[in-house]
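FAQ: What does the model actually see?

It sees only this:
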Amino acid sequence: QVRLVESGGNSVQAGGSLILSCEVSGYTYHDYLLAWFRQPPGKARAAVAAIDSDNSADYSDSARGRFAISKDNAKKTLYLRMTDLKPEDTAVYYCAADIVGRKYRGQGTQVTVSS
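And it is asked to produce this:
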């Protein structure tokens, strides 16, 4: 059973930084895609960043240059380092995994950025 558990969400001032973590357990495959999504209040969920098993990363336009996705294979943990946070980054952040074609998602962690 694949399980994803996010942590690290918090309330911060604009311009601040946060690091989100996502512990991924229950799989042994070496071909996968891990990603962060977010859902702002009243809006649809959208992709923020993704990283594959070869460490190739991609970002949304709003995240590029401010956010960095990374993973620690030994700890099976996915990270999202967020800097220069803006009020529009306020959202529930979810980590997600696509493992041999099956998709999984965590329960989310709240990030609130105040101006």
